[in-house]
Amino acid sequence: MSGTRRVLVVLFAYVLAAAAVLAARLHLGDRIPDPMATHFTGSGADDFSGRGTFLPIAFGVLAGCAALFCVLTTLGRQTPTQQRGLAAAGCATAGLLGHALTAVLFANADAADVHAVRFPGWQLAVALGVAALTGGAGWLLCGKGAPGTGRRGPAGPAGPVEQLPLSEGESAAWTHDVGSRVLPLVGAGTLVLAVVLGLLDGPLPAIVLLVLGVPLTALTRARVTVDRRGVTVASSVVPRPRLTIPLERVVDASRRDVDAVREFGGWGYRAAAGASGLVLRSGEALSVRLTSGGEFVVTVDDAATGAALLNTLAARRAGG
Taking residues 39-46, what's their average pLDDT? Predict the structure, then answer.
């Protein structure tokens, strides 16, 4: 029930935020000009929208954030404390958005010239205060949760530890490409959004999104290689980044199945609960147990062959 409780707390916060915005809009009625100011700079309003479109857009933003945080609090982390923190962050975001949207309505009330509408700086401070209160309330309402009620973390190496027979002096290498269906869409969407924001709102937000989008695009496809150096994972799109796990760090390797969301909270280079690696999809993965006690995982087809060769090479190095 802890997971359900967290979702209900998040939903309740966004319902309250939507109710506050709706109440303010109904209270102000025709006092809101058409069009109304919806974006502000230090010198005044610089963007406007129709009075009738404000509520649908506001409710759409709130609904999207509510859905995002509901998913994150149930699938995005492994421990009850982390899930509780995400639920609290969702409540804080609801408080911030609810106050900001309501304040925009009151800023527009009775405005004779929408270009002269101001959004006072102290309103931002109030919005942050509301966010802190709603976030704290969300944290308390979620409760601690019983131990073990969170989503499971990485399961650790599984399956038999096998070796690939090699004759004395014989060498071998194994390599395979792996791609993601999700990251190309996210990366492309981020880059497109960067271009749009660059045209509409200046270069700064575009640069921020480009910094995020380019690494995502670089990680859409990777090549995994097992040879005398150990395990090497390199981007198939650009020469770097490149990651190598040398043979001296390998205890053994095996093939196991990975659930990207439930175990690692998403796709890309991930780290969680004693495990790290490149998780581009759910399914078959090469799992390497390290001398440090951790696990390195990379999702790739034919992982059993790669694991068997890695075990042989690691044993050969350890034996002589």
Answer: 70
